[in-house]
Target: DEAD-domain-containing protein
Amino acid sequence: MAPNTDFASIGLDRWLVDALSAMRISKPTPIQAACIPAILNGNDCIGGSRTGSGKTVAFAAPILHIWSQDPSGIFALVLTPTRELALQIAEQFHVLSAAVNAKVCLLIGGADMRQQALELARRPDIVVATPGRLADHIKSSGEDTICGLRRTKVVVLDEADRLLSETFKADLGVCMSVVPKSKKEELGGRQTLLFTATMSDELRAQRDVKRGDERRPLFFHETNTEKMTIPPTLSQHYILLNSHTREAFLHTLLSTPLNTPKSAIIFVNRTSSADLLARILRLLEHRVTALHSDMPQRHRIDSLGRFRAQAARILVATDVASRGLDIPTVDLVVNFDVPRDPDDYIHRAGRTARAGRSGEVITFVTQYDVKLVEAIEERTERKLEKYVDEPGVSLEGRVVREMLQLVSEKKREAIVDMEEGRDEKGVRRKRLREKAEGFGRKKRKEAKDGEKTKD
Model:
């Protein structure tokens, strides 16, 4: 990138340059400087760059630039794997397009589907969706609702490596069945943009695929993808422990003088673990909130908002929080559970040490996790270093002497609270079911009585 490169010099309109400046973005990152001109030129694009490098702006800004010249119908469809990422992308489009008032429609699970269908039927300018929810609309909302998608000019797959995996294959296939094909047809072929932090072999292979004259030329750019690098400012440590002492070690670690001021994300592998661990830490008087896929959407939004606003110092999360979320204040990441996939470790680590800042990842390792750690070290090409106690603080000593009994008591209390909560939910569900069944019996009786009256 040339030293004097700015957004105006790579082709963006002045109103977009001003909008970016208002967001304190004055110089394009390498991924933005490379991809924005190619997208403006009409190329299909595959862009790879590590988390925090500005990939959303790399596709959102040129999309809005082109849309503003001829705004009509659903111009762009952006698909992304998680609700939180979809919310974040929709927010970026809202902020960037404030001067021109682009209509952005957000389609994610956990929100009212009927209201979403009404918004989609009004032909918004930009649709941001998770594949599952959009597939639901395509299957059930009717042609009048989804027909605008059939003229979509641009399709974006954000976190493309995940969207192209088996997990999303069926839903993604349904979504792509309603948008124009890549080839030029009577209605014009769509422009396809794929962005990712982890460049898979499948995506790299697209560089060598022969493309006929009828297809748009492909622009491929890869720089500092997470397949290649862990930030040099990131410290990686491990603590070897017994599995039954993990909660006590975590409480002790978060309570040390060095870590008390730090914001932290604690990653676990299961939603039930996230619920339990958040309850334990709350009982131990930590400012904590949780984020996982089993939470209602409103609670997920609230939790992320509390953590971003620093109302909660600690976020306990599953891997739903490991990709793409822009949380710039994270100082510490703790892998309470070792991730099964080394790529997930890299994405978790990417929540800290962003934009040149320093950060630390600490992984709790039991005797059952050694092979997983070896796979992570091979993948990242860096060894995890043994955690060294702060001067005057023996982590293991404090756990044994002071914390083990206390944390065990709080864990039992948290488990009881969770069981009582499940019982209350069960009672509420039973009441609702009985109410619905009673209402059904009443309607059937009314219908039967009506038939008798006719006779």
Notes: The first helix runs from residue 14 to 22.
